[in-house]
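Would you mind writing out a protein's amino acid sequence and the numbers that encode its backbone to help me picture the idea?
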Amino acid sequence: MQTSTPHALRSERPVDQLQTTVMRAELAAIIDRVTGSDGAHETAIPRLTLARVSQMQHPVHAMHEPAFCVLAQGSKRVLLAEEVYIYDSSQYLVVAQNLPVAGQVVDASPEAPYLGLRLGFDVKDIAALALDLRLGESFPTRASQRGIFTGELSPTLLDPVLRMLKLLDSPDDVPALAPLITREILYRLLRSPDGWRLAQMAVVDSHSQRISQAISMLSQRFQQPLRVEELADEVHMSVSSLHQHFKAVTAMSPLQFQKQLRLQESRRIMISEHVDAATAGHRVGYESQSQFNREYSRFFGLPPARDVKRLRELQLGRKSA
């Protein structure tokens, strides 16, 4: 299993470290005040979600949409296939593609809860800004890289994040100022050392953009049998090139990607719609019940019925707490 952790803030001058510490404390105070209770909290700012968690969690599996994630307090572990990305309040996480991941809060307590934010972004916003900056001309031949990365949360990037959260206290200013601050955040990310990873997904005819199209197609029809030759043809790539670049971006093959989509959706169906494992497995595309049970157990660690029972008990425990 590969673990990815960002660089420490050793390069910061003492004055920058002090400024960063003060800004993080202010960011934590705002999130703590606005959320008030555990859970994910939508805000008046489009695509901005705040989160508060008071205890360590079991891994939560989900399809993560493109987003910029910042922690004001606590730490989190994100798993993509066999890779682990760990970040805390000194780093940010960027998910540049729609990826099936498992996220786990690993540092949280009632006295010092996990406090974070997620700012989703649209590929069109990235494309427009990358075009304005002419970024596509600077890396036309770069190989595809993971659609997820971490980076140092500098004062330059913390500043617009903090200004965005302060807008929550002046909702009349949100329509005019939130888009400008979002653009500034994206600009800072694109100008970061790994910003080209974010820009590539929006550059016309780049491998990353074609893989983004392949991911979208798989997500829309994951219940259907996968024909890799047809998928490669639809995104104008050879089969070998599709496999190579798909794995470079997602850390898995198209078939493994489809399997994770199926298993995550089957789990959601069993929990939210109260259907049995046989029904859920059939609905997501499994013809063999034994294969579904076997792959589900391997992926989630428990057979379907026991796993769903455990999750429901956890949900009841949180409601009664």
About this structure: The mean pLDDT is 90. The chain has two domains: 2-200, 205-321. DSSP finds twelve helices and eleven strands in the chain. The domain at 2-200 is CATH 2.60.120.810 (Jelly Rolls).
